[in-house]
Amino acid sequence: MSFFISDALAAAAPAAQQPGIEGMLFPLGILAFFYFLFLRPQAKRTKEKKQMIAMMAKGAEVVTSGGILGKVVDLDDNFVKIEVCDNTFIQVQRQSIESMMPKGTFKAITKKATLNKA
Hints:
Layout: H1 5-12, H2 22-55, E1 61-64, E2 69-75, E3 79-85, E4 88-93, E5 97-101, H3 105-117
Antiparallel strand pairs: 1-2, 1-5, 2-3, 3-4
C-alpha cells in the first residue's frame, strides 16, 4: 500500500497509446506548407536571377538595385560598367543588377530627359 499520490494516480490511469503515423501528419503538413509557400518561390527567383546575370552582355539595358537605369558598356566576372547618361559611367557589382529592360527603354528615357531640359 502506497500513500504517494503519484503512485495512486498512475495505477488508476489507463495505459496511454503511442501516436502512430497520424501524429506525424500535422507537422509534415506544416513543413510542406512552408516549403511551397516560402522556400520554393524564393529558390525559383534566385535561379532566374543567376540565369539573367549569366546572360547579360554588352548593350543590354539594365536597372540596378538602387533603381539606376543604364546601358551595359563593359563587364567582367565581378563588375559591370554602365552608361547612365552621355559619357557618364558608373561601375557596379554584377549582383546589384535587378532586371533587364527591353531594348530601346534607355534611349527613350534619355530622349525624354533631354526634351524636358530644353
